[in-house]
Specification:
By secondary structure, the protein is of the alpha+beta class. It is built from three helices and eight strands.
């Protein structure tokens, strides 16, 4: 898959504040550029958040990263594709799909990055209205 600008937008377990073991991987191969947001809706799927694109003015809060060594792009993204369940067996549908999207930075600039969109049904699932899974999980803990 084409490298483009080597950028990746993350919103769940790959975010620095999530403290998930997968973040160790991200921080080894990618450099944090900025807090950022993309147009979409975020849902609570129980074990994980699910991002779904939208044309409405709803945003998902996350972080923008750039590959540290461009020559490692294909390998690094292949590892993330495996983590996100893009490669399935027995022709099962993939849990996520990777696409390039506009990413909005705090300074008002816009760039493009890859995101993992949820590729399954969201009917009846709770929408995370803030678009920020970390904030949502903290509020859930306090309730």
């Amino acid at each position: 898959m084409e490298q483009s600008n080597g950028q990746l937008f993350v919103y769940g377990s790959l975010r620095s504040g999530f403290h998930h073991p997968a973040y160790a991987y991200i921080s080894r191969y990618f450099t944090l550029l900025s807090d950022a947001r993309v147009k979409g809706n975020l849902y609570d799927m129980g074990e994980f958040p699910a991002a779904v694109p939208t044309t409405e003015e709803h945003y998902i809060i996350g972080e923008l990263y750039r590959i540290s060594r461009p020559d490692e792009w294909s390998w690094a993204m292949g590892q993330l594709d495996d983590y996100e369940g893009l490669h399935t067996e027995n022709n099962e549908p993939a849990l996520y799909k990777r696409e390039q999207v506009p990413v909005y930075l705090k300074n008002g600039e816009t760039t493009t990055a890859w995101i993992y969109w949820f590729n399954g049904p969201i009917t009846g699932e709770n929408r995370i209205s803030s678009g920020d899974v970390l904030e949502y999980l903290q509020q859930k803990k306090q309730a």
